[in-house]
């Protein structure tokens, strides 16, 4: 029992993966047996050709950007004026250029002019050596809502290593897998990496989640460079292995011991 639609596509009632295609546009109608994947590609191409008319698509895209667009400006603290620096003129110039965009203007693109009047602008910065008040008053006024984020907790570091989709643990596993080696981390070792990162951020310099990358590099660098042939190795990192690398930094209070762990 085959069911045809107006486009010539059909399927049977037994759930077969083989489908028939009928070309209704031709004078001679014929049944062609094709695989489901091939039918799906034909169907998608037909739908895309009907929906995505290029001229209309450009207008829809521009309208969507103008009404629903979001622009995220990161590291905005780097262009804040600083009294101890001589390049405040260039910093102020960048701020004035951004001010035009945030206030609302027309930006010329290859697809036409885009108005930024209704685009949402979001800015972020660490402001370690400067303050939001160091920005131009006009630019401050265009960002009226300010939110201060809390520092990462120990539990946050654990979740970053365990629950994120492409976490660093997985990345290092696949990196060594390319060399033919197998890398495993015990749960206690992952917790210890998170704890070390949290403590070093608190004692030395708060690098946020970047500290995890630096700690893992210190742990694995001896494996990289002390083993000329990694193929076939089965490496397991446990809590004791992690602690041996950072026990001096965690126990001693002399900051000189921490310098090599600052990025």
From TrEMBL:
An annotated GO BP: proteolysis involved in protein catabolic process
Span of domain Clp ATPase C-terminal: 152-243
GO CC aspect terms: HslUV protease complex
Single Gene Ontology MF annotation: ATP hydrolysis activity
Keywords, alphabetical: ATP-binding, Nucleotide-binding
Protein's name in the database: Clp ATPase C-terminal domain-containing protein
Record organism: Clastoptera arizonana (Arizona spittle bug)
């Amino acid at each position: 029992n085959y069911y045809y639609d107006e486009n010539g596509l059909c399927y049977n009632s037994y759930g077969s993966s083989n489908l028939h295609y009928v070309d209704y546009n031709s004078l001679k109608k014929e049944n062609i047996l094709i695989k489901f994947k091939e039918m799906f590609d034909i169907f998608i191409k037909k739908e895309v050709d009907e929906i995505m008319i290029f001229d209309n698509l450009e207008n829809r895209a521009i309208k969507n950007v103008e009404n629903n667009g979001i622009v995220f400006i990161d590291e905005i603290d780097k262009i804040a004026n600083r009294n101890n620096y001589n390049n405040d003129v260039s910093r102020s110039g960048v701020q004035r250029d951004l001010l035009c965009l945030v206030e609302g203007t027309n930006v010329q693109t290859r697809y036409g002019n885009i108005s930024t009047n209704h685009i949402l602008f979001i800015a972020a910065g660490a402001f370690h050596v400067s303050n939001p008040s160091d920005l131009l008053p006009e630019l401050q006024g265009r960002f009226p809502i300010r939110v201060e984020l809390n520092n990462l907790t120990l539990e946050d570091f654990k979740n970053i290593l365990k629950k994120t989709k492409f976490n660093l643990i997985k990345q290092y596993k696949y990196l060594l897998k390319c060399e033919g080696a197998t890398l495993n981390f015990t749960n206690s070792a992952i917790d210890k990496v998170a704890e070390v990162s949290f403590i070093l951020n608190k004692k030395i310099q708060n690098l946020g989640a970047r500290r995890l990358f630096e700690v893992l590099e210190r742990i694995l660098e001896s494996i990289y460079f002390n083993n000329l042939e990694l193929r076939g190795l089965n490496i397991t990192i446990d809590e004791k292995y992690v602690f041996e690398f950072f026990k001096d930094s965690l126990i001693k209070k002399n900051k000189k011991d921490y310098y090599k762990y600052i990025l």
